[in-house]
Write a structure and sequence with these properties.
Structural class: mainly alpha
Number of strands: 0
Number of domains: 1
Order of helices and strands: HHHHHHHHHHHHH
Radius of gyration: 19 Å
């Protein structure tokens, strides 16, 4: 690895920071970016890097929404914030389906589905679904408009939709937002709950990848990983604020069209460009 890999890490960090929160598949974009500008590293390091870099993006959620996520308060206010505890409990409930399926089958999903053909198909499929669901949802009135209105049952069902994102190209945020909208949750509440749901999921996924890779990381590998995470953190701050502002005024159809166009482009590109 050399200075050029640090530059590549910055580019991948930018891609991660944007695509982790927009419903367009961060894993899919990162895998495709690696095909175009691959890091000069082992497959084991790149597999770990592509997941652990997401910690930078997750820290953006922690920083932006610290007041809602931090469950403790001052002595005069009773130490514990009930709203935060309730939120975390719902997040944990929503995480369970992905944990039950994702942890034991992580290697299997990686071996079977981490390729450009699956990514293309999922980009196109969920692009179509976003357009169809938003058209269906156009005249519906949301039954759940705030996070506090999300029930434990709804949280669990949203978590079930998140299982779909184990296949790259699907998008974790895309699957959870799409599922939440179908369940009657408003776009704003769906997007925000998706942000919080990412925190334990990505921390857990990163821990698994780090343990599998081991701690024998070189100095240059550490620099490349740190630069990617920092870049993802900074870009994520901007992307999260953008998405929250966007969903207040617009639907997700644009992202559906983007996914379809990108999926077709990827399909054509890799049909003619050999590995």
């Amino acid at each position: 690895m050399d200075i050029f890999d640090i530059i590549k890490s910055v580019i991948i960090g930018i891609v991660e920071g944007i695509t982790e929160w927009l419903p367009i598949s961060s894993t899919g974009h990162i895998i495709l970016t690696d095909r175009l500008i691959p890091l000069d590293a082992s497959d084991a390091f790149k597999e770990m890097f592509n997941v652990v870099i997401q910690l930078g993006a997750i820290m953006a959620v922690v920083v932006l929404f610290f007041d809602k996520l931090w469950p403790f308060t001052s002595k005069n206010q009773g130490f514990i914030k009930k709203q935060s505890i309730s939120l975390w409990t719902k997040v944990i409930v929503a995480v369970l389906p992905a944990a039950v399926i994702g942890i034991p089958f992580d290697d299997w999903f990686t071996a079977k589905f981490h390729n450009e053909w699956v990514i293309s198909a999922m980009l196109i499929l969920y692009g179509i679904l976003f357009i169809v669901v938003e058209s269906y949802n156009k005249n519906r009135i949301s039954k759940v408009n705030t996070l506090s209105e999300i029930s434990y049952k709804t949280a669990l069902l949203i978590g079930a939709f998140q299982v779909l994102s184990l296949i790259p190209g699907t998008s974790r945020s895309g699957a959870t937002i799409l599922g939440a909208i179908l369940l009657g949750v408003s776009r704003t509440a769906a997007a925000e709950f998706s942000f919080y749901l990412a925190v334990p999921v990505m921390f857990g996924a990163s821990l698994i990848k780090i343990l599998k890779f081991g701690f024998n990381i070189t100095g240059m590998e550490f620099v490349v990983l740190a630069v990617g995470m920092i870049t993802a953190f900074i870009v994520s701050i901007i992307a999260i604020k953008f998405l929250l502002g966007y969903v207040k005024k617009r639907d997700f159809k644009f992202f559906g069209y983007y996914r379809i166009a990108l999926g077709l482009l990827v399909l054509v590109y890799f049909s003619f460009i050999p590995k």
